[in-house]
Amino acid sequence: MVIFTCSAQHAAVNSGQYDFYGWMPNAPSTMQEPPPTHKGRANEASFLFTLPDVQTTVNIIATVWLLSMEAADARHLHEFVEEHFTEDFPNHKVKVFQRELKRLSKEIQKRNRGLELPYNFLDPKLVESSIAI
Q1: Would you say 32 and 49 are in contact if contact means Cβ atoms under 8 Å apart?
Q2: CB count, 10 Å around CB of 11?
Q3: Structural domain boundaries of the chain?
Q4: Cross-strand partners of 128
Q5: In contact, 30 and 63? CB cutoff 8 Å
Q6: In angstroms, rounded to a whole number, what is the distance separating the alpha carbons of residues 49 and 40?
Q7: pTM for this one?
């Protein structure tokens, strides 16, 4: 559970932030007016007046861009640089885990070939092995 939470789950919610929030109307960081209370009364002008100002938008998009960037020293889930185990059984389990991650990565890449907009955020080759901010 710890490995999943600090790798795949984090990648699922973090890696695509800029893709989603980079277009501010998808999720405005602030609203300058309360939401409409009656259906049919909102129009384009009231919608635009409700959105945050340019400086706020720039600050939020820059923050989301920074949070979505991969760290320069990133280590991915399938990479095991340090050897923490000397016994055969845990080393075998690490190798089995790595093989399964490679298989999943190939499956994800194969599935994505047919998609207009591929979903790569959970490809084990791209998922960081920890949370790095």
Answers
A1: yes
A2: 21
A3: 1-69, 74-133
A4: 76
A5: no
A6: 17
A7: 0.70
Cβ distance 120 to 126 under 8 Å?
A: yes
Which pair of structure tokens corresponds to residue 38?
């009656």
- Residue 90 host element (H or E): helix 88-113
Cross-strand partners of 48: none
pLDDT in tens, the chain (133 residues): 888 888 888 888 888 889 888 888 888 889 899 888 889 888 899 889 999 999 999 999 999 998 888 888 888 887 876 677 889 998 898 889 889 999 999 999 999 998 999 999 899 988 888 776 6
Q: Nearest-CA neighbor of 74 among 125, 22, 4, 9? A: 125
Residue pointed to by tokens 């020293």 = 73
